[in-house]
Design goal:
The chain is α+β, with helices and mostly antiparallel strands. It contains 2 helices and 5 strands. The chain is globular and about 40 Å long.
């Protein structure tokens, strides 16, 4: 059996934060907790890097993504015409 891509994740470090450039889960694998697991993993990466902020942007119309991110503790940091930038403070251990 061949491997299937179930998601994509791209991160970058900028201005004292880890920024999620891309977080996507394939449609047939959505609502299985994969996005939440990816966010938990990213938060761990932030801690290891010593970064205190995690940032992500999404379209205002992407209600499932907004629900996921805000349920994980993100808050609106900045608004643009069609999108929002969300930010979460990461507890450094």
């Amino acid at each position: 059996m061949g491997m299937q891509k179930v998601g994509v994740l791209v991160l970058s470090a900028r201005h004292g934060a880890v920024y999620v450039d891309t977080l996507a889960v394939s449609p047939s694998y959505r609502r299985l907790g994969i996005g939440l697991r990816m966010l938990r993993w990213i938060e761990g990466v932030c801690r290891q890097m010593g970064e205190e902020w995690l940032e992500i942007a999404t379209l205002k119309t992407n209600v499932p993504a907004l629900r996921l991110y805000m349920g994980f503790g993100f808050c609106v940091f900045a608004e643009k015409k069609r999108s929002v930038i969300l930010r979460k403070k990461v507890a450094i251990q």
